[in-house]
Amino acid sequence: MKKIALFSLMFTSLIHAQSKDEQMLKAIYNFSLTQSQCYSWLDDLSNKIGARPSGSLSAEKGVTYTKQQLETLGLDKVYLQEVMVPKWVRGEKETAYILDNKTKITVPICALGGSVATPKNGLTAEVIEVHSIAELKQLGTEKVKGKIVFYNRPMEPYNIEAFDSYSNCVDQRFYGAKEAALLGATGTIVRSMNLRLDDFPHTGAQSYGDLPKEKYIPTAAISTNGAELLSQKLKENKPLKFYMKLSCQQYEDALSYNVIGEIIGSEHPEKIMVVGGHLDSWDLADGSQDDGAGCVQGMEVIEIFKKLNYRPKNTIRVVLFMNEEFGGKGGKKYEELSKKNNENHIFALESDSGGFSPRGFSLECDDAYFAKISNWKPLFEPYLIHSFVKGHSGSDIQPLTSVKIVKAGLKPDSNRYFDYHHAANDKFDAVNKRELELGAATMASFMYLIDQYGID
User: Fold this and answer.
1) Is the CB of residue 397 less than 8 Å from the CB of residue 334?
2) Which of 172, 342, 349, 446 is the most exposed place for a label (fewest CB within 10 A)?
């Protein structure tokens, strides 16, 4: 009889806890879909401030604006964290064309982040097409020297998770210039990381690695339509020449800031839970999807808790990181100061995959925590959140280390993300208000459950 009574008590407690959690999640979603400020915050960031490349005046305006908005929420602390960031400036709009006999066919390109400029009058050279760095290396110096290398490996269309396709081809963008320079190439152009065919070139970071500066060569992305055309022309008319003109320049590192706001925990103030995104963007557009959306969603988590009068057990800290796109200095500085201050982070959640409809979370944790978190799936299924997988969480929270820490990334529907990623169409009108708010509510719900049931 005692065992039956004990089981009955445990079952009743479980039902009560589930009911309490269901009610809290419902309140979170209701608030986010009816009263949240995240969409209006994003409107201001995108349309009043605009593109926020690290080290720029507009990035500093973004810092000031988000700090002011966090201060209106009545948090326990709002402050800035100094960080030195790289400053790279694109300069005047790039020019490129295919030289098909005596005909000039203009194609859209944009310099990749960190690229050096071409000579003042531009660069003209024979172009050679490859589909991978391995293929380039097989050609050797004799066939590459003096030429512009054209990397033309498309994102694989058959992956349901678009980030898998991105991961499988982004090496040509990041390392392509370095590897081509080692073989004596004069420049590189890279097919944009984009699943659809359009006329938007997509920028992104690239690295010359340990090459001496005198070996650096200019490198740019070409739109997917431009890549298709160039590839076709090469098939019709070998050899073919290509012209491009870049005016970019690298400056001294500049002072910038991570923006931080926090609610101090009522029971465990020494245990810190982080939520946020990165405040910087590329310069071609206002970065609404990447990552204005993630920043305002992180801010919205804090607003939801304040407006619902939820006092967390653990300290919850929203962090808007600077310089994710071009060096990750904000995340590294945050971890450096965390170690210096002996802080104990138990959880970190980042949104950096766009403001599309949320589908779940990508988790970095051991099997025991993954099983524990997966048990919460029934609470999320009414909101069509069903995907709990192990995988990458976020670049800004990647450096974070503590004795026991679980990291997570919000997983929105990824199918349209690379239509906008690092391109001139990553603007406010590409973000759906309801999808953005659903993402914020999903993040707040996850933070609530972690706060309630802990990371032991």
Assistant:
1) no
2) 342
Q: Is residue 430 part of a domain?
A: yes
Rounded to whole angstroms, the Cα distance separating 87 from 278 reads 16
Domain count along the chain: 2
Q: Are 211 and 172 within 8 A, CB to CB?
A: no
Instruction: Please tell me whether residue 44 adopts helix, strand or coil conformation.
Output: helix
> Are residues 278 and 295 in contact, defined by beta-carbon separation less than 8 angstroms?
yes
CA gap 116, 31 in Å, rounded = 48
Give the containing element (helix H, strand E) for 434.
Answer: helix 433-453
pLDDT digits (tens, 9 = 90+) for 240-264: 999 999 999 999 999 999 999 999 9
The partner residues of 126 in beta bridges, in order of sequence, read 241
Cα three-residue angle 170-172-176, rounded to 5 degrees: 140
Mean residue pLDDT of the chain comes to 95
Q: Write out pLDDT tens, residues 354-397.
A: 999 999 999 999 999 999 999 999 999 999 999 999 999 999 99
The CATH number given to whatever domain includes residue 160 is 3.50.30.30
| CB count in 10 Å sphere of residue 149 | 29
Q: Please, are residues 233 and 101 in contact by the beta-carbon 8 Å criterion?
A: no
Residues 390 and 412 in one domain: yes
Name every residue whose Cβ is closer than 8 Å to that of residue 46 and which is 6 or more positions away in sequence: 286, 287, 288, 292, 427, 428
**Beta-strand pair 344-350/387-390:** unpaired
Return the number of other C-beta atoms located less than 10 Å from residue 383's C-beta.
16
Give 237's pLDDT tier (boundaries 50, 70, 90): confident
Is residue 13 included in any domain, yes or no?
Answer: no
Side chain identity at residue 425, one-letter code: N
Nearest to 107 by CA among 237, 220, 248: 220
Q: How confident is the model at residue 101 (pLDDT cuts 50, 70, 90)?
A: confident
The residues that are catalytic are 324
DSSP-derived secondary structure letter, 424: T
Do the Cβ atoms of 323 and 280 come closer than 8 Å? yes
- Which of 222, 247, 272 is the endpoint of a domain? 247
Degrees (nearest 5) of the Cα angle 447, 335, 65?
65
In a shared domain, residues 124 and 106 = yes
**Same-domain check for residues 132 and 265:** no
- Measured between alpha carbons, how far is residue 432 from residues 66, 184, 277, 296, 435 in Å? 21, 46, 18, 13, 5
Same domain, 276 and 345: yes
* pLDDT value of residue 84: 98
Residues 207 and 348 in one domain: no
Q: Name the residue range of residue 197's domain.
A: 91-247
